[in-house]
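Narrative of activities, Objective 1.

The group set out to show that a structural description can be obtained from nothing but a protein's sequence at a throughput compatible with the screening campaign. Below is one input-output pair from the validation batch, recorded exactly as produced.
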Amino acid sequence: MSVNHAERAAELRKEGCNCAQAVLGAYCEELGLPEETAKLMTAGYGNGLGNGQGTCGAVLSGILVLGLRHGTNRTPVKTKFGTFRDEFQRCAGELTCFKLRQGQTPCGDLVALAVELLDTEEQA
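Output recorded for this entry:
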């Protein structure tokens, strides 16, 4: 059965997952990653890296998904990381949790954006 990543991410947010947990969790089935492991891996990414309102957890988990999809740290994968990051910033206007929250962008919208970009990348 194919998972609708956007729906799964929204469900995870409703269950109390942070933005990073919701993004990575939406792809667990596809990646063969146990959901509980994904939640533990990304627990420190909510509210910005290390709970310090740094880089948005949705961005961080998006890059984790790309790494798990595409493998090692070769140049083509690095390019995908940069493209994802740049496109997220272009759409959201910022990468840091602090500034995104100042602009009052809901975390759910940022999760949806990350998932949309990942699904678009997957189809390319």
